[in-house]
Hints:
Strand content: 35-45%
Number of helices: 7
Amino acid sequence: xxxxxxxxxxxxxxxxxxxxxxxxxxxxxxxxxxxxxxxxxxxxxxxxxxxxxxxxxxxxxxxxxxxxxxxxxxxxxxxxxxxxxxxxxxxxxxxxxxxxxxxxxxxxxxxxxxxxxxxxxxxxxxxxxxxxxxxxxxxxxxxxxxxxxxxxxxxxxxxxxxxxxxxxxxxxxxxxxxxxxxxxxxxxxxxxxxxxxxxxxxxxxxxxxxxxxxxxxxxxxxxxxxxxxxxxxxxxxxxxxxxxxxxxxxxxxxxxxxxxxxxxxxxxxxxxxxxxxxxxxxxxxxxxxxxxxxxxxxxxxxxxxxxxxxxxxxxxxxxxxxxxxxxxxxxxxxxxxxxxxxxxxxxxxxxxxxxxxxxxxxxxxxxxxxxxxxxxxxxxxxxxxxxxxxxxxxxxxxxxxxxxxxxxxxxxxxxxxxxxxxxxxxxxxxxxxxxxxxxxxxxxxxxxxxxxxxxxxxxxxxxxxxxxxxxxxxxxxxxxxxxxxxxxxxxxxxxxxxxxxxxxxxxxxxxxxxxxxxxxxxxxxxxxxxxxxxxxxxxxxxxxxxxxxxxxxxxxxxxxxxxxxxxxxxxxxxxxxxxxx
Length: 581
């Protein structure tokens, strides 16, 4: 009878434990950088010792708040207990909210991890009944775009302004920086932030200019500018007053976003486009100026090709001079004197060529042409330089003074080259026969010396091939080194890095402990390592690192954290090598 009672009690206790439910519920699994996330840890029993997760990648703005409800329906009772948090993300990416834990009847229960995707900031509707959102109607981040339909390489400006009214602000921090894909961008320095007065949405606001950027679109079509998001500490007035009658303030942190912007870029017209057009857009002046035109023997001149004006000066190349073969021209030295304002780039760029005449004579430098697209008239314009005549007053003369460029490099007979003979007759002073030489004897004896070496090598190879256990150890060691090497190569790819790192650690351990994959349990590894005189802290480090590899694939990790995990793996393997008996 006692036996049956024990079985019944065991079945009832198992049934009760099976009915314990403890789970994490989130308001959404995908949210914008400026949105909030609510997470509730729900249980149907009165669990004790609640341990929340660390919420990596998020910041707690409210909570935990505890709620308990119990009801009776048709003679049955239901119980529910919840711990609630409000979170805001710190950055874009994919994050894993790890397990929370409770204790009930001496047992530990844990929730399943929750995967959250954080995207760029989005426009969101504000709930007027949400106390956490109060004050948002007095705080706006705006991106003013000077033009939304420019040509390729036409400058546009984006000015980011933070508007606020009847609130205090402090500690402005960028949550996500704007991205200017397919734009050439230049930030305009703002030396000091200063509040100004202005009208926004028909009301008086104060505003701060946070950022100024000049953009040059590099391709046509609809181009998207990723939004700027800020984290701002806000001081809000309340209905309470202190003992002196002054209104008391409450401080909270707000996330504001300028929103994404779409720019529709027009292609440059094909009609009338010159063949030598290199992408210059703006209003320019083109010049080709030599430092001198009359040269003595051995002298050189500088030929400067320059463009001055307003436009995309850093985004096109200057035409290259074409000179006769009798003029030796060196590679250009490029220089820039450019300033960038909200109106775009302006200044001067130039290429300076050093030219040295090789022979006496007069040599023309053909005119250069420079074409650009004029934004004012919406047409292409071409500027030509005049022909430049270089006069070499003395020096060697060509073989034929009336020769064309194709034979101007032919030189007349010069006395100083007569001493150089073009052909020589060489013969050996002393000859030795190959037969009977040291080389002949060495090559003759070499096959006999190789026979013993071949025999020894063959026996050693047969011994190695017969050592099955040793071969398996060497193979696992080789795999560990291979995967550590692979992990180092993939250090900029988080998921592939942690896969390779985990394989490397397992293969190293299989080599050292002479075990198979089926024996790679946590308890078995721990017992085997401790029996080999490995320090407990090293064992714990090894197990912790291998367990974290799976979670780390999806959790946010910086390049610094990934490098630290790799260095830690190298350290652990080194310590295991030293300590294993």
